[in-house]
Design a protein that fits this description.
The complex is a heterodimer of chains A (268) and B (245). Chain A is mainly alpha-helical and 268 residues long. Chain A has one domain. Chain A is 76% helix and 0% strand. The longest helix of chain A has 28 residues. Chain A starts with a helix and ends with a helix. The relative contact order of chain A is 0.13. Chain B has a single domain, classed as 3-Layer(aba) Sandwich (Rossmann fold). Classes of the chains: A mainly alpha (268), B alpha/beta (245). The interface between A and B is medium-sized, with 28 and 32 residues.
Chain lengths: 268, 245
Amino acid sequence: MEILKEIIKDHTQNVEQTFKMAKSDLLKTYRGAALGWAWAIIKPVVTIFVYWFAIAIGMRRGGDVNGYPYFLWLITGLVPWFYMSEMLTQGTESMKKYSFLITKMNFPVSTIPTFVSISKLIINLILLSVVIIIFCIFGYYPNIYYLQIPVFLLFSFLFFTFWSLFSAPISCISKDFSNLVKSFVFAIFWFSGVVWNADTVKNKALRRLVKLNPVTYLVTGFRDAMINHKWFFDKPKELIAFLVLLLIMGLLALWSYRKLRKEIPDVL
Amino acid sequence: MAETVIEFKNVTKIYKLYSGARRKLLGIFFKSVKYKEKKAVDDVSFVIKRGESVALLGRNGAGKSTILKMITSVCFPNEGEIIVNGRVSALLELTAGFDPEFTGRENIYLKGATIGLQKKEIQELEQRIIDFADIGDYIDQPVRSYSSGMKARLGFAINSNVRPEILIVDEALSVGDTAFKDKCLDKVNELIDKDHVTLLLVTHQVGIAKQFCKRGMVIEKGKKNFDGNMEEAVVEYNNILSKTK
């Protein structure tokens, strides 16, 4: 309980500073390269093209989904995943990257994962707007279901910020943990329904398991908003399952931060 | 009787040394994983009153810097209690502690905020800091482009001008050219005389320690060996040095 109070205090007393650090994290990511901000677009575009080419052209599995071209279906899942994968790896590395804030000054350490997360989310918001523009170009205009996009953004933000607060302290202590996370990102990607449709899994138990995966839930949420036109409260079971997992992630974050907060400056 | 600004009550700081990376990882999850304890600071107690200037003397690795880091609450003790009353400004390794991608000016705001100043207060101090650092147009360049001398200048300028109540100086006065060094020494003197700042100094230069401090503490292997008159502290410190030769 004490630690929760401390984390909340760290955040409420440093709101302005947290956003400033997020801004600087953003600038840092893209400053210093000749193409600068263009990389925020080029990298995802290349990735999207590769998956689209491999699946739609190579495996010829790119059929329309719910009347939408496969390409649109693909990008509504891939773009939110970009934020998640960034947070899985760079969220885990956040405290190591900003070690000078921890070892050289009295900085509110618990806000480090938060500002890294905000920075990644801002990039993702830009990409998501591009996705909406592409939808318009294809002739699919925003409708009432788009209103739940912010809900799923919030869900992703909370889940992966909690994740970072959990994983960043551990990765400071153990390099093995960082490597473990890095090698699992790829696995998480293919086990979650990002490039394939989780609804088409035949085995019922397996399908349930796949849908329990928070990455699948979040990605499906964005697709429900933009393609399937379903409300998030229309799937109460899955919603509750996700919220329970979110709570567990939050508790893990508290456990990790409480246990390791005082050791982090010693090991960095 | 002056008020107490820093108090250490039986403070012990233990670093855990695991024999391998695997044990280190397991140690997060299981209490039973064995590790060696290195006591960096071993049952140290002292009281420092407002306006005192204290020098910490000791060999490398004696635990001086760990004590300073605990005062600035960068790291935490395993046992004991630390009480600090007042705004601490620490010159721990001058050239570090900046965000290298921020400009000098932005770093002034970052440091000011972490010390606990309001934005308005920093705005008032900004010009004084820039004048003191005297690094010209570089103030609006990212700190990564600075030379180590420039970083030291900016570091000292910020920390000495944010109206500290407790000033902690760790080997910091030995950087920069002679002119800037003298400027720094003058500034420290001014802070002590005018603003009655409490000074904690870590240095291997006995001359500087004598110049500023009346009280000396000798730290050896994490324990406080001597605490008292500066002259006697220097004798004790030299004793330790000659023993190890």
